[in-house]
Write a structure and sequence with these properties.
- With 470 residues, the chain is an alpha+beta fold.
- The chain is built from 17 helices and five strands.
- It has two domains: 163 residues, Heat Shock Protein 90; 210 residues, no CATH class.
- A hairpin with an 8-residue loop joins strand 2 and strand 3.
- It is elongated, with a radius of gyration of 37 Å.
């Protein structure tokens, strides 16, 4: 078991508190200053999105309806599938383009919801046809996006023209003939004489255009923000991740965990059977022969030989007892039930042939459920047994604590065993560490092994205390 170094699943450092790095950015809100910072990006998004939407509706419509028209021949189905794949790609592009608006990133859908193996070319080809995300992406690319993009493009261009054009009218109007003003400026001056008095119509027109520019510019962040959220909502509903995706992932994880638990249990039973056959059973058979020989020597009156056989039988009986105690370390002791995990781990350390120091968090017993405590005790017992048998270590440090829940992970128990042995541990199929990895997988946990040649060996278990939120 101790031959080379490898890392399994989890890094050696404990999990840091706080949100995970992959957590989506929070919604920036509707604050006026925050909206202003997103105006340029939103305007750029709307303009680029309109260009992409005009391209996507042409391309997707041509591919899809060509496929529908030729469905009776071989080429029709691949064309429909191609249109779905192109729609997926355009949806992915839209999700990333939406980052220009400053809104939170839309998570990737579960494109492979159907994990049932498909045999043959046609079985694999038609996988997109059975995934609703592809069809919703096609709907987004051929209808929703072009409607939203056309309306948004018209509003954005109109608002930018009215706002910026109104604010700069005083400058660019001097280059236009008949700058004295048009008829509508005269009409406004005549309608509101108490406001403009005897102002020239051109001045009245310039003031009104400037006021309109101020109004359009002042309302630009709200209008652009509403358009960005409209696009973001449509993309989230049609090309983003659905709650059912998280449920599907959770179901697959639970199924995988259950399968790992079954395999770990089966492997544990086979190991126990093998250990019983190779250890205590052989000693008890030898003990039976020794007792039979002892009986014959006693009947023959050979006291010295009988005494020697009695000593050998006693040694075999003691050896069988020691091996049975070692095998029973995987069974939860009464101390665990009566006084909790911390006391049980200290008791386990006291029975180890190595010098074991236990560092357990004070809140351990109150925070860890009984089923997790039993499995943690078994993991600790297995790791201490491995260290005593294979590592040539003199001392071991066991650290146990609970990690607080974050936005992406539930609360968890972290248990680490560090020895000063020769290192070189790795998880080999059919051996102890691999069995522990499978047992932890059945609990939705992970095993980490960091054991460079020459040591030290650091092995840790990370066990969730509850199922992750879906």
């Amino acid at each position: 078991m101790y031959e080379e170094s490898m890392t399994v699943e989890r890094p050696t450092a404990p999990r840091a508190a706080g949100p995970a790095l992959t957590a989506p950015r929070p919604d920036p809100g509707w604050g006026y200053a925050s909206l202003w910072t997103r105006v340029p990006g939103t305007a750029l998004y709307v303009i680029v999105r309109f260009a992409i939407a005009t391209l996507s509706i042409s391309l997707l419509s041509a591919l899809f309806f060509a496929g529908v028209g030729t469905i009776v021949i071989v080429i029709g189905l691949p064309l429909i599938v191609l249109s779905l794949l192109v729609a997926r790609g355009l949806g992915v592009a839209d999700r990333y383009l939406l980052l220009l608006t400053g809104l939170p990133f839309i998570r990737e859908p579960e494109w492979d919801r159907d994990r049932t193996p498909r045999v043959g070319f046609w079985g694999r080809l038609t996988l997109p046809l059975r995934n609703p995300h592809y069809w919703s992406s096609l709907l987004h690319g051929t209808l929703v996006s072009i409607v939203l993009s056309a309306v948004s493009f018209a509003i954005v261009v109109g608002w930018l023209s009215a706002g910026l054009g109104g604010l700069t009218h005083w400058f660019w109007s001097i280059f236009i003939p008949d700058a004295e003003g048009g008829e509508w400026g005269r009409y406004v001056a005549e309608f509101l004489p108490w406001v403009f008095g005897t102002w020239p119509p051109g001045v009245v027109e310039g003031v009104l255009i400037f006021i309109a520019g101020v109004i359009f510019t002042a309302t630009m962040p709200w209008v652009f923000g509403a358009l960005a959220r409209l696009h973001h909502g449509a993309a989230g509903a049609l090309v983003g991740r659905w709650p059912s995706d998280d449920l599907a992932v959770e179901l697959r994880a639970e199924t995988a965990a259950r399968g790992a638990a079954v395999r770990a249990e089966d492997e544990g039973l086979r190991r126990l059977e093998r250990d019983l056959h190779d250890g205590p059973q052989q000693r008890l058979v030898r003990l039976q022969f020794d007792l039979a020989a002892l009986e014959r020597r006693a009947a023959a009156g050979d006291g010295d030989a009988a005494a020697q056989l009695a000593r050998e039988a006693l040694a075999h009986a003691q050896g069988a007892l020691d091996e049975l105690r070692a095998l029973s370390s995987g069974v939860a002791p009464p101390l665990l039930q009566d006084r909790g995990l911390s006391a049980a781990l200290h008791g386990l350390a006291a029975t180890s042939p190595l010098d074991v120091r236990v560092e357990a968090a004070p809140e351990l017993d109150a925070a860890v459920p009984s089923d997790i405590a039993r499995n943690a005790y078994f993991v600790a017992a297995e790791l201490l047994t491995n260290a005593a048998k294979h590592s040539a270590a003199r001392s071991v440090t066991m650290r146990v604590w609970t990690a607080a829940a974050t936005e992406s992970e539930p609360a968890a128990l972290d248990l680490w065993v560090v020895d000063d042995g020769r290192g070189g541990a790795f998880a080999a199929p059919g051996h102890g560490l691999e069995g522990l990895a499978q047992r932890l997988a059945g609990l939705r946990g992970t095993l980490s092994v960091d054991s460079p040649a020459g040591g030290p060996t650091r092995i840790g278990a990370h066990i969730p205390l509850a199922a992750p939120a879906g």
